[in-house]
Amino acid sequence: MTDQIHVDAQAGTVVEREGATLPFAVAFALLVTGAVTMGISPVFVRYSEVGPFASAFWRVLLALPVLFVWAYLETRHRGINWRLPRAILLSGLFFSGDLVFWHLAIVNTTMANATLMATLAPVWVVLFSRAFIGEEVGRNAYYGLAICLAGAFLLIGSSYRVEPERIVGDLYGLITSLFFGLYFLAVRVGRRTHRAGEITFLSTLVTASVLLVVALISGNSMLPQTLGGVAALVALGTISHAGGQGLLAVALGSLSAAFSSLVIFVEALAAALFGWLIFSEGMTPGQIGGGALILVGVWVARPRAGK
Q: Which residues lie below 8 Å from residue 100, measured CB to CB, with a gap of 6+?
């Protein structure tokens, strides 16, 4: 992932080889929408009626038809570039690692512990952006990261427990965050040569291949028992993956990896809100304050042109 991207470090935008960058407001809105659609994924998983690794496999497999149509339409003048440069191959492998270790984490530790560890992904993006993809990270991104982490701890960490028997599960959660952070960087580089739908489609092909093997080895129940379970899996694939990861790829063509990763904290906020709206899972004043801090952190880290 040492490929270099031409970046305006202050404005946080990238000049792509194919297609113009989006205005900040548009890219930001798409990124937030993507974070929200990813945030609703636990709702669909809860209704999916299959094992965790199986749900991860169906998530990416059922996204492929939508992503193929998207990739075909945006590349119809030249055709889909089926070559897999390193960045796209790695993005698929990194996302596979993210999903595999996420499910290992939720099986081996509490949901609060797993979620809190997984939210550390932006730390890796901020730390590795310059070394891996040649993208400078401004001070505001570090300030925003600190505020967002404080917000995430208030939102999720109030239920965190340090227990010796759950250390392995916590470590799986930390590895999850590393894989998701690396996924961000790989997609950012992949957007140099591929359009958003194209890179999401090709990387998802890689992820689906890996997760099929993992799901079969795990012995998970692979098939839902009701139409509701089928509908949940279809929604997981089309809304949370095709929509969420696709919009993330769109935004990463115009926004820096570091700033974009901070906006993904909104996913944790969205998940909490959906839990409250759909499952009547109450939110404490501390959690509400944590959500507000996340929004403040994103605002602090926003790109500033001309400074």
A: 53, 56, 210, 211, 214
